[in-house]
Amino acid sequence: MSNFPFQRLQTDLAALIERTPAGQRLPSEPDLSKQLGVSRATLRDAMRTFETQGLVRRRQGSGTFVVGKSQVLESGLEALESLETMAKRLGLEVSVSNLNVERTAADQNMAGNLNLAVGAPLLRVRRVMCADSRPVAYLVDTLPETVLQMEDLPADFHGSVLDILLQRGDALTVSRADISATNAAADVAKALEIQRGDVLLQLVAGLYSGDGRVLDYSTSYFIPGYFRFHVVRRVGGR
After folding, report:
1. How high is the mean pLDDT of the chain?
2. 142 closest CA partner among 62, 228, 206, 58
C-alpha cells in the first residue's frame, strides 16, 4: 500500500474515532477492515497511531474502545519524582489497582541488579496506576527486605515506594534509568488492559543510597499518549 492511501486510512479512522462517544466500542476488526477496504493487518498498523495517542484502547476479547482525550502527565527526567507527585502538581487524580506485594528470593539476575547474594530475601511490589479510572502504567519495584518490609507499607498505600523511602528519611542520592520502547508481555498487557505486543515506554531504574547501595530496582511500563517525558540539557560545556 502506498503512503497516500495509508494516510487516507488514518484520516478515515480519525474521523470515526472523533464522532464515536468516549467509552463506546468501535466496529469489530473484520467489519471495520471490510468497511474501509483494507486488510486486517493494515488496519492494525493504522490503529496503533491512535493507541499510542491514548485515543483508543484495545481490550483482549472485548474489542477496541474510544477513550477520549485525557490529560497528559508531563515531567522532566532531571529530577526523580513519583507519579503521585507528578499528578498532584497537574491537579490529576491517580489511584492504585491490582496491588500485589510478595516476599521472594533473589535469583541470579536480581542478585546482580541489587548487588546481593543469590537467595537474599526481597520484597516485590507490583501495581497498576490509573488516571481517570484508566490503567496508564504498570510499576514493579524490587527491594532488599533490609530496606523495606511488607509491614512498612501503609494501609492506605497510594502506589509510590519512592515516597515511602523519602518520607522516612532514607539517604537517597541518585537514580540511574535506562529508557526504551518495548512490546507488552502477556502479564503486563493483561494488567494494563491492552493487547500483548502493544508498544510501551519502559524505564528500568536503580535507586542508590549515599554509600552506593542499590536500595530499589524498578521496572516501569507506561502507555504512550498518557505521558510526555523531557530532558533539559546544557549546550556544550556551559
Report:
1. 87
2. 206
Strand 63-66 versus strand 121-131 pairing type: unpaired
Q: Look at 89 and 9; give whichever has higher pLDDT.
A: 9
User: Is the separation of the CB atoms in 13 and 44 below 8 Å?
Assistant: no
Per-residue pLDDT reduced to its tens digit, 59-87: 767 888 888 666 677 788 888 888 888 88
Reported pTM: 0.78
Q: What is the mean pLDDT of residues 3-17?
A: 82
User: Residue ranges of the alpha helices (H) in 133-212?
Assistant: 161-167, 186-192
In this predicted structure, what is the pLDDT of residue 54? 73
Name residues whose C-beta falls within 8 Å of residue 14's C-beta, 6 or more positions apart in sequence.
50
**Rama region for 90: left / alpha / beta (φ>0; ψ in -120 to 50; rest):** alpha
- CA pair distance 81, 163, nearest whole angstrom: 8
pLDDT tens-digit profile of 193-207? 887 888 899 999 999
Per-residue model confidence (pLDDT) at position 4: 60
Q: Whose grid coordinates read 508498544?
A: 199
Ordered by where they begin, the domains of the chain are: 3-66 (1.10.10.10), 73-230 (3.40.1410.10)
Q: How far is CA 142 from the centre of its chain?
A: 16
What DSSP designation does 38 have? -
Tell me whether residue 124 is exposed, middle or buried, using C-beta atoms within 10 angstroms of its C-beta: 0 to 12, 13 to 18, 19 or more.
middle
